[in-house]
């Protein structure tokens, strides 16, 4: 998902596109934050915020305190404190925006136990880090084979090595609780490192792995979406979408998060809109709603005996008929209301090429042959003499 402007250089340092902490295409950083305070200087006497945001593999981000003797900038590779040993990550955000992000994620910035940054990563740290990252795919494959042999109902989706290579975290998804004690023993014996198992949900799995959605863009959960709200099928019903699980489900197998994006607008438009279950009683018969257009304010009704013949009514007309039906009064027919909604548009034919002719660039035809043939027909004696 990376772009050419943010690729790494020879020494392993990220090049960076110098776009205030975010890539111009949003393709290489996940859940990136645009630093709109980057070009603003601090007031006199104010010290810069002493915490930074560091991103590790995929979407994992943590906050660290920076010692006073270390000068950092966005894009630096740093060695950070871990439970045992050290980890290696990339600085993604600095300044006052880090304070806002910590408050948003409910992390106390005045906590004395907040992990610290040891130093800027040396070339030795970077080489060891990249070497561990290169082994992750092979170890993930072997771990999946071990889980299959033990017949564990789980899926190992991702493996993340610690920066010093002493520990590996295995992320897995499962429907029920899994007893993986024997799996940890086998993996620790085979790989010679400390093992940590961490269960994540299906949406978190899609967030970590990333991918391309049906819209053709990168997944929202891996680029900017931070909170996963519950999505129900009623969101699709309000938007009049077909309840097809294959189209409504995302890469994670759950309902797409984008179903909630426009839901509030639909609910606002449906406040003064008649229900689709409403029935209209006329002297000609009972009519049922077949289709609605929320934003045009139109409804299509058909009689019970004529389900294929639809009549177009506005929402005001439908509400008027409903009020009359509630007063135990029937209208004559739907045609009396539907005729007012028929718009006859005159068909206008225009020249798509403007005032110019489509054949203005064609070569003029040569009519000399036709003239010669006409002369020969008029004077057949001259042509016979020439042949003789």
Automatic annotation (TrEMBL):
<dbReference type="Pfam" id="PF04468">
    <property type="entry name" value="PSP1"/>
</dbReference>
<dbReference type="GO" id="GO:0005737">
    <property type="term" value="C:cytoplasm"/>
</dbReference>
<feature type="compositionally biased region" description="Basic residues">
    <location>
        <begin position="366"/>
        <end position="388"/>
    </location>
</feature>
<dbReference type="InterPro" id="IPR007557">
    <property type="entry name" value="PSP1_C"/>
</dbReference>
<dbReference type="InterPro" id="IPR047767">
    <property type="entry name" value="PSP1-like"/>
</dbReference>
<protein>
    <recommendedName>
        <fullName>PSP1 C-terminal domain-containing protein</fullName>
    </recommendedName>
</protein>
<feature type="region of interest" description="Disordered">
    <location>
        <begin position="348"/>
        <end position="388"/>
    </location>
</feature>
<feature type="domain" description="PSP1 C-terminal">
    <location>
        <begin position="115"/>
        <end position="200"/>
    </location>
</feature>
